[in-house]
Fold this sequence. Notes:
The chain has about 190 residues and is mainly α.
Amino acid sequence: xxxxxxxxxxxxxxxxxxxxxxxxxxxxxxxxxxxxxxxxxxxxxxxxxxxxxxxxxxxxxxxxxxxxxxxxxxxxxxxxxxxxxxxxxxxxxxxxxxxxxxxxxxxxxxxxxxxxxxxxxxxxxxxxxxxxxxxxxxxxxxxxxxxxxxxxxxxxxxxxxxxxxxxxxxxxxxxxxxxxxxxxxxxxxxx
Length: 191
């Protein structure tokens, strides 16, 4: 098992460096050594997701949940993937379970906010985004998403405030640029 831990750590390093093939290879070797370690499936799932292997990622997150139904991160990751696939009801079930297990999981709050907004619950989305921002105030996507919800609700000043702050944190966040342009257009600010 200790050798598996070394492979997991090296896989995490490779994933952080965006060498996803090397990361997945290390996670595969760790699974051969210890096929009951849910961390490996969760981490390999994330690497597979980043590499574009969505079916493999879903299988890994589901296997992590089978091995340990208390793995909040696996529930959150699978819920995020289900949201991306347009499976809003299934995503909401997974994200609610993740937050039941770990109410401080900011990524799950952010994903659940997106689901809620898409299901016509902007107030629920705002509540989740407020909590996510309180937990991780440097995550530009949370401000961008909250700006989008304010835009949906017609609160242009709040939308612009959040979208501007999102772009201060991450000037490459395309969604924030697009939504800020829409907010300015609605406001009549075409400069």
